[in-house]
Amino acid sequence: MNTIAVNSSYLLMCLNMLLCYALLGEQLEGLSMEKKLTGTQLGAFTVGKLIGDGGMGSVYLATHPERSDPLAIKVLLPQYAEDSEFRARFIREGQVLSELSHPNIIPVYFFGEDRGLLYFVMRYVSGKSLYELLLSRRFTPIAAWQILKPVAEALDYAHERSIIHRDIKPANILIEVQRVDGKLHNQVFLADFGLSKVLTWTALTTTGVSVGTPQYMSPEQVMDYPLTPASDVYSLAVVVYEMLLGRLPFYAKKPDQLAFRHIDTPPPAPSALHPEFPKPLEAVLLRALLKEPERRYQRAGDFAQAYAEAARQVGRERCAMQYYVGEPRHIR
């Protein structure tokens, strides 16, 4: 088995820190609820209803006197603004990220600071996340393709501009039903480009821990090795694996144990979980999930193209079938 060579003591230190960081995030999750901003002003924006809350901050609806389109404003927890270097980097990176313009990337219109709070303003998407959809529905290979293709296109666009997302996961993939030429159409958006790079930097400089979600992190991200587009490809492959099978490649009770799985444990072959799972699609998934980034698809578009070619080889009838197995029994 080929794995990334590691220094065991360094790895243990990193993984212990990862666990501490995850626990800290859980403790902070409710803090932003204590101070509601609804009805106040942040810069030129009026903060509206709270629509989301988490460990990094809160998301509200927002309005601007010169705009009629729906807006959302994400306000980071106050401690982020207390670090002057982080604050400067937040604004600097925000200026770059706000220039991203792609139909499958939620546009970020403005980054700013007001009264000790860092925030950014983006397009409001009135739809569900892939995370929510996975709780209530099962995906065929055809349905998974309808998510994979636009996300891969968004990633290629960002990667061509030297931007790595670093946190591809179902919660950061949003689907909005739109009407186009009189017909309903599912528009897929990739979210949170605005936080990935700058939060990674501040975590590494203050705790030595990579930002990301352990279930979806590439081996090199766990190890704090340099990231490449292939790192996002790995995370996207975990998402596709989950869509097709209704379960993740790896499970563990603790974040550090889960991180070890990404580094040294091969993912279960889909056909070992569901005997009828198409072998061509399995080969594509397992290549995208290889431990060594140089052996994976180097572009998200290459992954999507290989998936499409495998699907054509399998045929429409089998691609319209479900291969759901669900989470392992001990996890349920």
UniProtKB/TrEMBL annotation:
UniProt keyword NAD present: no
Gene Ontology MF terms: ATP binding; protein serine/threonine kinase activity
Keyword line: ATP-binding, Kinase, Membrane, Nucleotide-binding, Serine/threonine-protein kinase, Transferase, Transmembrane, Transmembrane helix
Name of protein: non-specific serine/threonine protein kinase
Residues reported in the UniProt entry to bind ATP: 74
Domain Protein kinase: from-to ranges: 45-308
Coiled coil segments of this chain: none
Membrane-spanning parts: 6-24
Species name: Candidatus Thermofonsia Clade 1 bacterium
